[in-house]
């Protein structure tokens, strides 16, 4: 078995190495994520949720990821610098994993969300939203977020979306700063096809990858999920952590 | 085949009878819904969404319902007094139906939602919310709504919940007037068990049935779904209608 | 000079007495607020914001109130059981006071808000709202809150209203659980006349006094303000405390 | 008396000229607003609210403005292409005007709002907010809107702010897409000094003027109000129009 260690900072790197050595697992180090990560049996990420999202931007076929949180919220991570030794050992030994679907558009993948924003900050853009080809809304706003349930605690959260069960496969559609008396987030089955029609906008995947878009942006479930080591108390932890986002 | 006609008002009753007669279907009339409705092959409801919810309060085993909307929003209905003749004929001939899960608590069923409210209007109540036994929130509010996805356009809608895909099985947990700087609706898999701990409250199912509750209120998916004739354009119609709620 | 001490609990009563004695101020004790409080030079309230609101329900002409917070949030109070001795002495010596306007309806006064609620919990009521005689909104909801700026952290806060500067005289109109795709709180000059037209409702002043109402409820600024000892850092304290309401 | 006509489109220009000629008022035409507008006795704006905001960007000393709405919402305008002849004649004859305060920062004026946005779309920025020098909030968001009461129907409206009485002088502080479990708009007296501390952001006045900012942005009431011809039913019209923003 061969592991990859992706680290944003190297403060606890030696301690991570020792854990893997104690498990007789060889490893390579990555200060920056790359496509090569697909070729490892699992990935240890030292950093925050952003580090994991950057890893995922590089890979289609995803080895199980184990996250050690050195960032802020850490909803995607499994452990802290204080407790990772024990948690990591246990995770690798049992090797129980779980998949979370990603969504795709324009050949890019996203675990959290696609944000479609006006190129010019502070200008309204006209947006039409379709579900499976049928128009469901038309509005003026700063942008649109189409998130997965995992992304319900990312940009969709900021834009006014609900907190969603990580195991309920769905997409959440939330406008950013809609110029409108009323609006609601929409939560839809992930097997639907979401179309967002805009002019001259930018599509941002998980706050990482940007691509210019003009016209129809189609977002749908990808066949390349993100894979993580299993986290036992994911749900109570999630709800407890989101209340602390302030 | 034997149909039941439940009517809130009798304005179009004769026209409904004629349609059934033309299809050679015998029928009985109900000015008030009752348990007996379980024994019919299908039910035609003349009224609004409230009439359908009242029908559902009376029955566990649900024959397919066809709704003719003489009320306001009509999200559960299939047709209007203008077009029901054609739509009803087509529905009965093809007899395509679809199920929507109900939730249950204290032996009562709800298609839209359970609302747990303080007995004394305008007084805060202390609420603890658990998911599958794990506490996920604790707050002071006027009440709590636990809705199905179908109920996302009912009381949960008023309380600040998202609009949810009618085919995405889930529960939506929304506080009513929470005394709190921040809050979010929670959307969770319907197979979870939601517990709401309150003191001296009232549990209201679909705005119809009331029962006093004190302590733990457990809400979970029922094995008795509501059954409706299939509606082709349910999703675009839903999103279009909710925008008109004003 | 003669003071009244209103106490909800008697834990620190003796310490309060000693402070007043040290200032050579005579006093009377009230375990329940009454109209007689109008006849004192100032009032010391031992309790929470609720205790102060109960005092204000009893009096039109309001002597300056000094609050020692033994409750939860304590936005109307001046001190805690830990620091009141010093703060109270200083307040009485300088005797700097400030007034906050109250609003009135049906012969009742409110410092925080009037809530107009359906008698039957969980039932929608039809509401029409007028400003200075002109209709500005019509909706279905559980109730309507009309608050002062001080009440922006009370029921209006729970219902979804903004946090308002305690020195900006205004009324905040917020629906409770409006059945509507969109809504906004309204913030209006306090010299306007707010009319809320409802059927068979209950009017609740500051969560204390209830009166049945049917038809037009007119709410306007009262000529009987609430009077408090001055609080130096009222604004930063307010914003800091509201963020802690959870 | 000398008038300036600022026109975005020239469809009704001749009809406007005729009204002024019939009143024996000389005029000059401006296809683009400029500083020179300060030197006229009044301004007729043919366009939408954006045209009026562009005029106001050019002038400190503001002659009374009369707006003919050829745009969308038209909250700042007085008349439509259908009825302006009569309304304009009446306005010029009575010459009743009203002032609405503007706010200022970095030497720029705004009638509606200042928006402080991240230069990079979709990236969170750290923001600290102070009132009269005292910190009142600290958060991560896409941006901050500081609006006047008139701007409560502009960007602040989109960002989640309340609708405010046009005659209640205040500032409304609303974050855009705050990454936070809870937040509230703040409504404060316009005589306060609002400070927003950010890094490497852009300050946008009324959606028109942009300037780079880094560090402390101080926003306060300007001594140069905007001046408009009086509008009789401003309040009911406002509330009726905002409900139509969809």
Structure description:
The first copy, chain A, has 246 residues and is of the alpha+beta class. Helix content of chain A is 19%, strand content 41%. Chain A has five helices and 17 strands. In chain A, the strands form three sheets. In chain A, strands 6, 7, 8, 9, 10, 11, 13, 14, 15 and 16 form a ten-stranded antiparallel sheet that branches. The first copy, chain A, has a four-stranded parallel sheet with strand order 2-1-3-4, with helices on both faces. In chain A, helix 1 runs parallel beside helix 3. The first copy, chain A, starts with a strand and ends with a helix. In chain A, 54% of the residues are buried. The mean pLDDT of chain A is 96. Chains in contact: A-B, A-C, A-D, B-C, B-D, C-D. Chains B and C meet through strand 8 and helix 4 of B and strand 8 and helix 4 of C.
């Amino acid at each position: 078995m061969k592991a990859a260690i992706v680290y944003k900072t190297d403060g606890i790197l030696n301690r991570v190495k020792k854990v893997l050595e104690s498990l007789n697992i060889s490893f390579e180090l990555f200060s920056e994520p790359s496509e090569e990560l697909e070729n490892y049996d699992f990935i240890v990420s030292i950093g925050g949720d952003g580090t994991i999202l950057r890893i995922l931007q590089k890979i289609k076929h995803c080895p199980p990821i184990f996250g050690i949180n050195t960032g802020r919220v850490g909803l995607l991570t499994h452990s802290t610098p204080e407790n990772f030794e024990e948690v990591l050992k246990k995770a690798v030994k049992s090797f129980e994993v779980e998949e979370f679907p990603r969504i795709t558009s324009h050949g890019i993948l996203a675990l959290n969300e696609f944000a479609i924003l006006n190129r010019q900050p502070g200008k309204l853009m006209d947006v039409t939203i379709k579900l499976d080809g049928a128009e469901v809304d038309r509005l003026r706003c700063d942008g649109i977020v189409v998130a997965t349930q995992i992304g319900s605690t990312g940009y969709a959260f900021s834009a006014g979306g609900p907190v969603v069960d990580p195991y309920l496969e769905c997409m959440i559609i939330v406008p950013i700063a809609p110029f409108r008396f009323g609006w609601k987030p929409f939560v839809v089955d992930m097997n639907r096809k979401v179309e967002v029609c805009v002019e001259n906008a930018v599509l941002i995947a998980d706050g990482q990858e940007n691509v210019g878009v003009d016209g129809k942006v189609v977002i749908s479930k990808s066949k390349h999920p993100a894979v993580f080591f299993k986290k036992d108390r994911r749900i109570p932890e999630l709800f407890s952590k989101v209340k602390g986002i302030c």
